[in-house]
Design goal:
Blueprint (H helix, E strand, L loop, with lengths): L1 H18 L4 H11 L11 E3 L2 E3 L3 E3 L9 H9 L3 E5 L14 H19 L3 E7 L5 H10 L4 E5 L9 H6 L3 E6 L2 H15 L6 E4 L5 E2 L14 H19 L5 E4 L5 H8 L5 E4 L1 H4 L8 H9 L5 E5 L5 E5 L2 H7 L18 H4 L3 H10 L7 E2 L13 H37 L5 H24 L3
Parallel strand pairs: 3-11, 4-5, 5-6, 6-7, 7-8, 8-10, 10-11
Antiparallel strand pairs: 1-2, 9-13, 12-13, 13-14
The protein binds flavin mononucleotide.
Length: 451
Amino acid sequence: MDTLRIDNALSTLKKIAEELPATSFSRSLREAIRSIRFPVLNWPSLRIGDKIARIPVIQGGMGIGISLSGLASAVADSGGIGVIAANAIGLLERDYFRDGRAANLRAFRREIRAARSRTGGLLGVNIMVAVNDFHQLLDVAVEEKVDLVIMGAGLPIKGIPVEAMRRNGVKAVPIVSSARAAELIFRMWKKSFNDVPDAVVCEGPLAGGHLGYSVDQIDDPDCRLETTAPAIVAALKPYEEEFERSIPVIAAGGIFTGADIHDALTMGVAGVQMGTRFVATDECDASDAFKQAYVDCTEDQIGLIKSPVGMPGRAIRNEFIVAAEEGRGPSFRCAWKCLSSCKAEAANYCISLALNNARKGKLERGFVFVGSNAHRVHEVVPVATLIEELRVGFRRRAQERIAGRLKPLAADVRRLWREYEQLGSQKIREAHAALLARVKELQLEVSAFTT
Ligand SMILES: Cc1cc2nc3c(=O)[nH]c(=O)nc-3n(C[C@H](O)[C@H](O)[C@H](O)COP(=O)(O)O)c2cc1C
């Protein structure tokens, strides 16, 4: 249907252009219109250095066992980048309370290897800078030669094994929430390592899990993804020039449909990172009850929590959260102070244990992290079905936008043709120049998403 609309609108435009009176001005406009190809629109691949994902989608790392080898390998197999989250992954092991550090490293390595054995696609890991075993987890990721390491909840600027990462082909991708944070990381990397990260995830305030904003900033228009993502793209330009490589920015937080992916890409980012949608998949490593909580939740149940990590988080607010806020949290034993900034005593609960309970389906003994759009999830589907839905939605949006531009352009060329006799040559020149600029813009948009 949309293809037909573009087809019709393009033939109309071309026909009108051919009828323009033959003048020296009209030649260039006619040629430009003639050269617009019928677009076979598709989403572009995502390149991070020499790593090329067929589709511009990274599955967000989701801690405490939500994104393990099952989900990550399925996404990688579908052409995206699958991500295993390292945070408190040792809770999958029996000996976490005896030696949390060892349990984390063992489970992390095992999940990376399990994912590798299942897919030849691109695999990343997500490590929180704020965890006490950040550097050890990073070493495991580098030894296992994952394709990329995504680092959030803190600034990854100290003790990063940049040389080993380069040797093993591991890309570094910090998560930031502002251009200021991105600039700080890049400045520090340049100074300390004479190098810069390979890409940046810009996570906006609509994301799930921990948020890199104060509660006040969450509704601040200056912190919206639409504002911060283009600002980060601009802030990284000088580093792209200096280091002679492209540094893709990946947008995250609230991206739900293929149309959203299209709109994000038109802001200048190279790809998106999505979490919420991937929870509601068959391959997600959480329990069915955890996934069902996404299907069942309503918009007004989604809210913020004050996490013991010291940042706000977005979750389905339940009785567990209310009780903890009122000082009626469960008694708990801290396994090994996994987070340097943890204020579990003040918060009345251990977030790792609460999230692990939820992962296992014991929802009343914990809570479920979600993105702000989780209430729009209506079913749990295979990853491949989700990716196909996103691909179709992306394409439809691209077609709508192009058809929407072609129609008024055709009308304006026709108007010019009708008014030719009455217009003075200066006016004709100006009208041609304006139309030519619009044709060029259209060509750029068509070529950006044409395969
Ligand atoms: C259940 C859940 C757990 C998450 N855990 C982590 C995490 O451990 N580390 C991290 O950097 N981001 C985490 N996130 C954020 C996601 O990786 C992703 O960037 C975010 O959810 C994107 O927003 P969306 O859910 O609206 O797509 C989590 C999100 C969810 C929903």
